[in-house]
Design goal:
Helix content: 55-70%
Structural class: mainly alpha
Strand order of the largest sheet: 2-1-3
Strand content: 5-15%
Number of helices: 8
């Protein structure tokens, strides 16, 4: 008894072809799905904002909005400077004549008015930082790096402007001339000065931290992409 011989190449190709002849159009479903998969996935991506849908303003628009925010926040420094000049405690000075020369000294050497001046500016800066961050977040919830940078820069410029406005509104900086004007032994207020320059960072720091926190907690979330696939068709049994 001899072993069966392998069929000729032309017969073998007809038998071993996939899918088998007469399997029907369902046998080609997987191949058709593979051919159409890129197009269908691209269409689904377009529906979720990957290709065909705009995902927010462009970088040029965000930079322009950040510039507007920086200018608007910086102008708030005028109000901060007025409040600082109004609420900061006065440092009392006294003028005297020693050997024909005018000298000026603190009336209360143990007083803490100078510390109160710096503390008032710091607290006002923190309050302005909270308000500016809240307003910017309510007007522009999507946030963005340019917007956060504009908010921080505006807060720093506003602090510098408030410092100069307060000094300008305060008493004269020439204390010797002021002492001569009021007379010997008369108490007068010292110029408004900011001893701790780190207080200038209170406004931008508070604005930056609060805005980032609000964006992380209540900001919009990006939709998760969904990958669509057609139904899986098992190959016919042999």
């Amino acid at each position: 008894m001899t072993a069966p011989l392998n069929p000729p190449p032309h017969e073998r190709s007809a038998q071993d072809s996939w899918p088998p002849p007469g399997a029907g159009p369902g046998a080609h479903g997987s191949q058709a799905h593979e051919a159409e998969a890129p197009g269908s996935q691209q269409a689904e991506y377009a529906g979720h904002g990957w290709y065909g849908q705009d995902d927010g303003p462009g970088m040029r628009t965000e930079v322009r909005e950040a510039g507007v925010v920086a200018v608007a926040v910086a102008l708030g420094g005028v109000l901060l400077g007025v409040l600082w000049w109004w609420l900061a405690p006065h440092v009392p000075l006294v003028g005297d004549v020693v050997e024909g020369n005018w000298v000026v000294y603190l009336k209360d050497t143990e007083g803490e008015q100078a510390v109160g001046v710096d503390g008032t500016f710091t607290l006002l800066g923190l309050a302005f930082g909270v308000v500016s961050a809240l307003v910017v977040f309510l007007l522009r919830r999507r946030g963005g790096v340019p917007l956060v940078v504009g908010l921080a820069v505006g807060g720093l410029l506003g602090s510098l402007l408030a410092w100069r406005v307060g000094v300008w509104l305060g008493p004269a900086e020439d204390v010797v001339a002021h002492a001569r004007d009021v007379g010997r032994g008369v108490t007068f207020s010292a110029p408004l000065r900011l001893g701790a320059k780190g207080a200038l960072l209170a406004w931008p720091f508070a604005a930056l931290v609060l805005h980032l926190g609000l964006t992380a907690l209540f900001g919009p979330r990006d939709p998760e992409p969904e990958f669509g696939h057609g139904p899986y068709e098992a190959p016919p049994a042999a």
